[in-house]
Design a protein that fits this description.
With 117 residues, the protein is of the alpha/beta class. 34% of the residues lie in helices and 26% in strands. A four-stranded mixed beta sheet has the order 1-2-3-4, covered by helices on one side.
Amino acid sequence: MDENGSPVVIEYKKDSDSGVLSQAVSYLSWLESAHHEVEALVRKVLGSEAAESIDWRHPRMVCIAASFSHHDRVAGQRLPERIDLVRYRAFKGDLLSLLLVDSSPGSPSAASPRPWT
């Protein structure tokens, strides 16, 4: 959960991987179908107040990888969910750099199922 009480899916890939975004979307789909399980876990770890204050209207995905393809960036901008693409770089001496390379604020109705047409 983020500082606003919204659920967050974080997907990390050790290398460059064009599947990072699709996997995060898959996990978000599961998360949205498992409200009761997630609320029970939050209740157990963070308490009842946190579980009752989950804001299911604005879930977010954070995808972390060594790099992202042009297609990842385009898909991230087209999807209605909130998405952050974060590039990491590891340095000697156990140093890590994180850089936000793209961010999509999502649409207000992102948590609502969209009908197929």
